Amino acid sequence: MAMITYAQARSAFLGAARLADATLNEYPNPERGPEGEALAIDVACLGDPNTAQKLVLISGVHGVEGYAGSMIPTDLIGRLLPSEGLEIVLIHAVNPHGMAWFRRVTEEGVDLNRNFVDFDQPLPANPAFDEQLAKWLTPSAAQKSTADAALMRWMKSDMPTMRAAVAGGQYRFPAAPFFGGFAPTWARANFETILAKHVGAARTVCIIAFHTGLGDGGIGQFIGSHTARAKEREIERFIWGEEYVESGEAGTISYIISGDLPDGVRRQLSGASVIAVAHEFGTLPEMSVLEALRIDHAAAVAKARDFACMKSIYDAFFVCDERWKTTVIKQAREGVERALTWFERQP
Ligand SMILES: [Zn+2]
To answer: For 293-328, what is each residue's pLDDT tens digit?
Structure first.
């Protein structure tokens, strides 16, 4: 089946936002998409902008995950009626370059959800990545089968430790996956501008960022951040109950991530109570997703990202199946409804 393009997803979202009478703002990206199309972060707001309570829905932190991520707010926006005292802010394609080019990373080659570290401080270390994983994940052609066998051995003996080391974030190998960057990216800088303008003065902020690629196919989980304070964690568990997973919680798919988006939000809005989760939907088996990422990064280094490469990464993060899409939309609606219900009960 044909792939959706960024321009198509964007235009569907903007159309739905206009029908819903949302206020629209555009943050243009200086780069272009594969067909020369313009790129931007679009922000659609519903309700009173001067409220102390904000619900923020974010798609496309990991570019290519934005195809599922865009489908969700496009479905939701016409059904959302903010109650008095609440504004709903929908941020579409916060990493528009990655989305348009079917990559998880930004135009700088950075994993945006690892980029929100304080760059004035020493960067987080990831010894296992630095010593072994970097060469296993991006091996030369001659080393590929040795690297595959080593990854497989580690996966079989200790998947949680391997997952955390592979995907927790690394700050030394710009060509490898899960690279958090050497500086704030364009997407981070613009997200911070958006946050200051549209959310800045709020006292209570609830953020749901839509992600795909982790967990069982079609199953959604709400994953918290290790930066959540005890009270915020308690509220997150209260809102999303059984589907809520703490960052790094034993026996779950979750692992600790350095420099994640909630980390940045909590630093920027230091006076606010921040409820922040990734609503993460499973697609393919974990090793297939990782393999698609390895192929993508190898192709990017070789400047050989052809259609087959883009299609394989698109398929790893967006399942082209009506049942998958329907169940994802249903769970996303429920997750947002639970957040809205919680807001209604706040004084
Ligand atoms: Zn993601």
So the answer is: 999 999 999 999 999 999 999 999 999 999 999 999
Position 214 pLDDT exceeds 70: yes
Neighbours of 242 (CB within 10 A): 8
Return the CATH superfamily for domain 6-344. Answer: Zn peptidases (3.40.630.10)
Q: How far is CA 44 from CA 135, 165, 310, in A?
A: 42, 36, 28
Ligand 1 center–CA 213 separation, angstroms:
7
Q: Where are the domains of the chain?
A: 6-344
Distance 200 CA to ligand 1 centre (A): 24
> What is the distance between the alpha carbons of residues 115 and 136, in angstroms, rounded to a whole number?
23
In this structure, how many other beta carbons lie within 10 angstroms of the beta carbon of residue 121?
7
| Residue 55 Cα to ligand 1 middle (Å) | 19
Distance 347 CA to ligand 1 centre (A): 33
Q: What does the pLDDT look like over 77-133, one tens digit per residue?
A: 999 988 899 999 999 999 999 999 999 999 999 999 999 999 999 999 999 999 989
Ligand 1 mean position to 164 CA, how many Å? 14
Residue 299 carries which side chain, given as an amino acid letter? Answer: A
Distance, in Å, from the CA atom of 46 to the CA atom of 334, rounded to the nearest integer, reads 19
Q: Maximum distance among all alpha carbons in the chain?
A: 63
